[in-house]
Amino acid sequence: MGSLVSSPWIYAFVALSVLLDVFLPVLPSGVLVIAAATAAAAGSGAATGQVPHDVPDILVLILCATTASVLGDLVAYRLAWRGGPRLDRAIARSRKLSKAQERLGAALARGGGALVVLARFAPAGRSVVSLGAGAAHRKAREFLPWSALAGLSWAAYSVALGYFGGQWLGATWLATGVSLVALFGAGAGAALLMRRPRAATETPPAP
């Protein structure tokens, strides 16, 4: 990772991983972003005692991850928008996608696009929301601004975890591991928050 971070290729790897994980949530895009930020915090030339300009690197890393996140969301959104019988049947068969499509449509209609931001942190939430927004034919101006905010929030949070972890613990696997635990914790919290409104709507009102 140290040699990769010291070359411009790190940005290409980060962008490609973040772009594709909307379709393949198993891709370790979060791991790659955090590891890159951790190594950048300690300095890619740490072994020689030469510390590069970390802040511009960190900013470029955030920009790459954010841009790739929004582009991936847009591709998934447009594919689901165009849809077709096969995609419609796949969504109809998936209880998670069907529920997400209904809830997302209602949330965006109320201006409550914070659901899109929460979903970006939840496991596979980005895929569900992007496909759901497209399949529901939500307008791009309703979805994309929230997608951009979600991508920026996730990228900034992930990079901050790696950067400060590297500052405090050095460019070690321990720093990366602690940062990943914090990222997964945020994902678990986001998933819990996304479930709560559904539980509330299923509870009958008091007489």
Automatic annotation (TrEMBL):
Membrane topology listed for this record: Multi-pass membrane protein
Transmembrane region(s): 6-24, 58-80, 143-165, 171-193
Primary localization: membrane
Keywords: Cell membrane, Membrane, Transmembrane, Transmembrane helix
VTT domain ranges (all copies): 39-163
Cellular component GO terms held in the UniProt record: plasma membrane
UniProt keyword annotation of Cell membrane present: yes
Compartments, as annotated in UniProt: Cell membrane
Pfam families reported in the protein's UniProt record: VTT_dom
Protein family: Belongs to the DedA family.
Protein name, as recorded: Membrane protein
Species this chain originates from: Streptomyces griseoviridis
Organism taxonomic ancestry: Bacteria, Bacillati, Actinomycetota, Actinomycetes, Kitasatosporales
